[in-house]
Write a structure and sequence with these properties.
single chain; SH3 type barrels; five-stranded antiparallel beta sheet; 5 strands
Length: 71
């Protein structure tokens, strides 16, 4: 399975999929409602299905990036 960044597959994803919002700026929270980071990118398969969220746990783009599998 080939994975691509959402912007590579859908250059206008903000408008086409999210109505003008940018998912890359959404905050990510733990089960205990503690902010753990923000969405850095989304990886999609050839059919456009979301497969992974890449979450940045640092500040201003610095920090570790984790890949969360979507099932």
């Amino acid at each position: 399975m080939v994975l691509r960044k959402i912007a590579d597959l859908y250059p206008d994803y903000k408008e086409d999929i999210f109505g003008g919002d940018d998912i890359k700026k959404f905050s990510v929270y733990s089960d205990e409602a503690e902010k753990i980071g923000s969405v850095h990118d989304v990886l999609v398969d050839e059919g456009g299905r979301f497969r992974y969220f890449v979450v940045n746990t640092g500040f201003l783009g610095f920090g570790k990036k984790y890949y969360f599998l979507l099932v």
